[in-house]
Amino acid sequence: MITIIDLGLGNVNSVMRALNYLKVSNRVSSEISDLEEAEKLIFPGVGNFFEASKRLEINGMKQAIREQVLELGKPILGICLGMQLLANEGEEGGISKGLGLIDGRVVRMSSEKVGLRLPHIGWNDVSHRNLKLFSGIDENACFYFVHSYALELEGDVEHSLSNYGTDFVAAVKKDNIIGTQFHPEKSQKDGLKLLTNFVNGVF
Amino acid sequence: MLRNRIIPVVLLDGYSVVKTLQFDVRRNLGNPIVVARIYNSRNVDELLLLDIDAAKENRTIDYFTIEDVASECFMPLTVGGGLTNCDHIEKALKKGADKVVLNTEALRNPDLIKESASIFGSQCIVVSVDIKKDGDSYNLYSHSGVDTGSLDLLEWCKEVESLGAGELFINSVDLDGKMTGYNYDLVKMISEAVGIPIIACGGASKPGDCTKVIKSGASAAAAASMFHFTDYTPENCRENMRTAGIPAR
């Protein structure tokens, strides 16, 4: 069973619908007991980093996620803001803390400096796809992005890139901790394939 | 490289899909779920679902319709119609929307743009700007009767951006359903005034129009009539863009 972590901020049900379509047993929840019962966690998100950071501090959610992932080794897939929240801190809405599962910070993209518009909204390709997560997906596949902030990694962490005026982290992997800046649940068949890979432990 | 988007627009009058002419005369086109299913099978870049009567009738777009469409479509879904507070927005997102369109309420209560962007993120908030050409000038238009007389179009677009909207949905009221091409000058003027992406709508008749409106500064070309009433598909539009050297999926 997969638990989809709900902070009451985003389109968590889109991930649920995608898993239902793939016939993968899942539950959307903000209860810590449902984190404990899950084999894998998905942390989706549309929203504001600062607001989400605040909500993580409520009822020991942050500590519970860290425990499940770091001590019990449960795989977690962070999507969009969910991926950004894996980092140590973010600057959207003011500096605030993330989950601290991956060393890095989330900063505003510099695309505007080269005359591009933010948010970065739409379909973009992903390069340096050395992560197993992309197994079986066409090399020219595009994924759906919608964000203005991006993860800056510290140290040597496996990742894939995308480009919008500047290269930025499109996907990241550190042991059992996975993140995608794009929305696989909204990226049609290629996105569904990537979710299937995560569900099957191919990452 | 980011691809420019082609976005089919599905207008609802509550529960049925309709198509309007200059925001007025209507044709009924049936069930939104069926329409969405067809677009999903055509791998469109994004779908825009708007209930055009919701604000006038003091209700919101039907949440079950959002949910039904979202359960069939694993693609970006933007919805609007009568969303007047953050609870409405949260509910629409929960039912499967990725982004919401604010129109009447943004004019009536601009603070909602700021409040919703701070909770859900700018990338989630699309503000619709309806524009009517009056001689040589452009005026903001509200089909729900909000007085826009004192607002300057470009000033309003800049204000919407500074309040935190992530995208502008530019609608040419006088070209709605006319299929005579977009208002390219208008798109160019607004895209030069703001730094957020622009979705252009109103007047598309053929794939070349989409290419031209992207060249005028839009990030996405939206259309309803062209896809409802002609044989052109979103893929034809993307092909036209690719041939012209514009990145498209």
Please describe the structure with a list of short key phrases separated by commas or semicolons.
heterodimer; A: 203 residues; alpha/beta; Rossmann fold; four-stranded mixed sheet; 32% strand; globular; B: 249 residues; TIM Barrel; 10 helices
Structural notes for this entry:
The complex is a heterodimer of chains A (203) and B (249). Chain A has six helices and 13 strands. Chain A has 203 residues and is α/β, with parallel strands linked by helices. Chain A has a single domain, classed as 3-Layer(aba) Sandwich (Rossmann fold). In chain A, the strands form three sheets. Chain A has a seven-stranded mixed sheet with strand order 2-1-3-4-13-12-11. Chain A is globular and about 45 Å long. Chain B has 249 residues and is α/β, with parallel strands linked by helices. Chain B has one domain: Alpha-Beta Barrel (TIM Barrel). In chain B, helix 1 packs parallel to helix 2 and helix 8 packs across helix 10. The longest helix of chain B is centred in the middle third of the chain and has 11 residues. The chains are: A alpha/beta (203), B alpha/beta (249). At the A-B interface, helix 1, strand 8, strand 9 and helix 6 of A face helix 2, helix 3 and helix 5 of B.
